[in-house]
Amino acid sequence: MKKDLNYYDGLPWKVEIEPERQDDGTIIYIASHPEFEGVMGSGATPEEALADLHTARRAMIESLLTEGYPVPEPTAITTA
């Protein structure tokens, strides 16, 4: 299977979403993937943050592929 943007986009990425209080008191949500340090999405709702994260992740993967760098893959989730 060719590991292109569509391949990576279909992988089961772990998502972390945290609320963050702004200086004006409003709450925004920050979404991230542990595999991509510094790649984040934000929004007024968790869904908006997730959509923004998806866009940021795709841009990062596309950049890595274009430059010939390795793309991290989700870590396996195991249960005990």
Write a structural description:
This protein is of the alpha+beta class. The protein has a domain at 12-46. The protein has 2 helices and 3 strands. It has helices at residues 5-9, 46-67, and strands spanning 16-21, 27-32, 40-43. Strands 1-2-3 form a 3-stranded antiparallel sheet. The protein starts with a helix and ends in a 13-residue tail after the last helix. The mean pLDDT is 92.
Topology:
Blueprint: H1 5-9, E1 16-21, E2 27-32, E3 40-43, H2 46-67
Antiparallel strand pairs: 1-2, 2-3
In percent, how helical is the residue content?
25-40%
Stretches with pLDDT under 50, minimum 5 residues: none
Order of strands in the sheet with most strands: 1-2-3
- Report the sheet-strand fraction: 15-25%
Q: Give a count of the beta strands, DSSP E runs of length 2 or more.
A: 3
Shape: elongated
* Biggest beta-sheet profile: 3 strands, antiparallel
In DSSP terms, counting alpha (H) and pi (I) runs of 4 or more, how many helices? 2
Q: Structural class, please? A: alpha+beta
Average per-residue pLDDT, rounded, comes to 92
Tell me the series of helices and strands, N- to C-terminal: HEEEH
Distance between the termini: 31 Å
Q: Radius of gyration over alpha carbons?
A: 14 Å
